[in-house]
Amino acid sequence: VTTGEVSNITQTTAQGSGNVTDDGGATVTERGVCWSTSHEPTIANSHAQAAQGGTGSFTVNMTGLSANTKYYVRAYAKNSAGVSYGYEVDFTTAQNVSAPTVTTNQVTNVTQNSATGGGTVTNDGGAPVTERGICWSTSHNPTTNGSHASSGTGTGTFTVNMTGLTSGTTYYVRAYAINSQGTS
Predict the structure, then answer these.
(1) In the chain, which residues have pLDDT < 70?
(2) Which string of DSSP letters, residue by residue, matches 12-68?
(3) The pTM is what?
């Protein structure tokens, strides 16, 4: 039996494959893949059985995996003489992704119609921050649906100039950051 590549890797699932190239002179009654976080997994570890025995290629779904974890996988085939294993391959599950973490810094350089706002993206949430900036409004809790200005990508501290403000008006300002999981 040979072990194929692992595909369709998510945070908690993946698809393993194999190919039984020789039945060893007896009917292959079971075939599948086994996996573990330790080298050389066996059917005593987690394993998934293909729908049918016999020879040829097969794929199976591995479930119940942990995010951002390295696993070792081997295909196996069983006949009346015993169990054979393919070579070992490894893969790492996807990491858990969350919205980024961002804090709002103090507003500075306030004039009659402009001010400087900013923030700090302290954690990207496990995915690249594709946009960061500030949003402002005359109402509490402004969002990017209203007035906002961006200031690059990634983590770290940034500043943004707010222009077109009305003199003598109170504004509420929040920093924001966006990754594939959402906006914070």
Answers:
(1) none
(2) S-EEEEEEE---TTS---EEEEEEESSSS--TTSEEEE-SS-SSEEEEEEE-SPPTT
(3) 0.62
